[in-house]
Amino acid sequence: MDELELLKKHWKKEDTQYPHVSANAIYKMILKKSSSIVKWVLIISLLEFGLWTSLALFFKGSKSTQNFDKLDSDYLLIPLSVLGYIILAYFFYLFYRNYRRISATDSAKVLMENILRTRKTVKNYVLFNLLFMVASFAAVLYIEFDQDQALINKAHRAAANGEAFMFYAKIILLVAGIIAIFAGVLLLFYWLIYGLLLRKLNKNYKELKKLELLE
Amino acid sequence: MNNELEHNFVALLEEHQNIVHKVCRLYTNHREAHNDLFQEITIQLWKAYPKFRGDAKFSTWMYRVGLNTAITLYRKSKRTINTYELETYQFKLSAEEYDDTEEQQLKLLYDAVHQLNDIEKALVFLYLEDKDYREISVTLGISEVNARVKMNRIKNKLRTILNP
């Protein structure tokens, strides 16, 4: 006899063997908070949006930029931050739309795809931020070299001593170092949070995708 | 209004709760995990209930939400699973109905099913619930042909697990 047929025969008889959950217990259950991964994806995503926005505000208000503020930088930095906020709003809209689409009543595959899509929006936003950070650094450096007399003098002195290469190499290394640290922290964060949170989902999604290749 | 919704939902779920129990039966292997998953499925069903139109059967609708929760949404909230000695299911089979060998065989079968991956368990679950390949394909989002091919492979896999 087919193994599953034996199980099926028994499966139907098992109905009476489960502990009965009373209506009262069900009432209590629906008051409890869900611990689904969707909730965690939402929380972590909002934290990420918040982190990047507060990081931008922090840099804007910090003392280290006061010296820089004396320079004529508005023509470049204002459009840049306006662009930043427009893109934030756009990503947030995409995220919200994708998030609303997640429904437990879809097919297993569509549900997984919607969760992964929501995730991807946030990932793209973070990637955008890294690029935006590089662009901002470039803009700031450009303004500094264009207008900051102290820095221009330093550059001239370095050039006169034949150390121009060293001087620029140091600056480039410093900037690259800061960006690398940021990217490193992000990667670690991703590896930890999403690796653990979405491991099961990714595995099952791959399994479903494999089924498409069966024919 | 909200109270009425709640009341209807609880009544329907109380009546059809075995579907949830059976999902838990395949996806968990001890009582505590069973109850934890039962609770999460109940919460997900309740969250989705306002959108339940009644054009599908309540039970069919439950299959989807139940399996989606087990496969995708659910995160184990307790870490005791697999670390302590498991209090395995003890389904009392009445002696008249089953002889020892059949009981033994069933235990082996359930153990084998527990070794399948989450997607395979979903196919087995729907198969045990007597669903046709069309419904299996719609529930999982795969084609009917693939559901059929996969089901045959699962049967072979179970056979290999049982007769190594």
Automatic annotation (TrEMBL), chain A:
It comes from the Bacteria. It comes from Gelidibacter sediminis. The chain crosses the membrane at residues 37-59, 75-96, 125-145, 165-193. Keywords: Membrane, Transmembrane, Transmembrane helix. This is Uncharacterized protein. The lineage of its organism: Bacteria, Pseudomonadati, Bacteroidota, Flavobacteriia, Flavobacteriales.
TrEMBL record, chain B:
Residues 108-158 form the RNA polymerase sigma factor 70 region 4 type domain. Pfam families: Sigma70_r2, Sigma70_r4_2. Residues 12-80 form the RNA polymerase sigma-70 region domain. One of its GO terms (biological process) is DNA-templated transcription initiation. Keywords: Sigma factor, Transcription, Transcription regulation. One of its GO terms (molecular function) is DNA binding. NCBIfam families: sigma70-ECF. Belongs to the sigma-70 factor family. ECF subfamily. This is RNA polymerase sigma-70 factor (ECF subfamily). It comes from Gelidibacter sediminis.
